[in-house]
Amino acid sequence: MAVSDVHPIHVFESWQVWPGSYDNPPPDGLYPIPTPQEMIIDRTTPITSMGSCFAREIKRVLLAKGFNYVAEETHHPASVHAGAAWERTYNTFSMRQIFEYTFTDWRPRIRWWFTPETRIVQDPYRRIILYDSVEQAEADFERHRMYSRKALTTARVFILTLGLTEIWEDIEDGSVICLPSGPYVNEGGDMSRYRFRVSRYEENLANLIRIRELLYVHNPHCRIVVTVSPVHLWATFRRDCEVFSASCNSKATLRAAADEFASRYDNVLYFPAFEIASIYRPLLGQPVFTEGRENFHVNQETIDFIMETFFRYYGLRPSDEDT
Prior knowledge:
By secondary structure, the protein is α/β, with parallel strands linked by helices. The chain has 8 helices and 10 strands. The strands form 3 sheets. Strands 1-5-9-10 form a 4-stranded parallel β-sheet, with helices on both faces. A 3-stranded antiparallel β-sheet has the order 2-3-4. A 3-stranded antiparallel β-sheet has the order 7-6-8, covered by helices on one side. The model has no long low-confidence stretch (mean pLDDT about 95).
């Protein structure tokens, strides 16, 4: 049991107090896990994932360790980051739209962008996915919807990694583009119908609830593990604050939404990837960020530590991880 001079009549478990505080032992290199945690995975459990850059790292580690990762549409370059060709999805609006086009008849008013100079067809709602013609785009998208549905209905554990709260929204129908990037934007495509804004707690929570509703209808036995990506914003579109404050706001908003989301539903669990990277690793005196041009990313040692903790949380003993 933990020691507290401040609250001597209360009995705390070791994971309830800050390691090294007062007369409590310092961090021992194993992230504290509240008990009991339900074991929801083994190597046969169908698992898939969606989200920001960190979702790609989750997929890579699960595949490398021989887990039953549900990977559809593997011929498509956009599938390298997730369970299907969703590419990287940074905000909960894009995630919700994936579920809506997979399971409903979601149709934004502008379905495709046409680049002004090269006349390439670009998908505004997935990160820089390009086609030579509308016919090619529509045929590929229909195949993608089929693969997306297969991935989301096959998985028994769905890992959702939340990234940021900044969005670019269509002012006419409310649809949210992935990013203002790619050849359409670079060639001067009309962006006048899109506005930038910072989404807030209630909206992000509503998106998560909608995602669960659709998943539950079509795959009621699937568990959701929601986490906040430890990868920070490389840049912010905001003009009222600098990148550090913008990144902190995004993570704090999403962390609060994820907490409420997990507290409402028995089939939703929260995994503290962000806390492991931003608090626990620094407490150990370990570097967190990678070096070089992408120094807003977490380094490989931190990724490995997060995934080792994930296995301890949800099913595998450390001695089983490489067997």
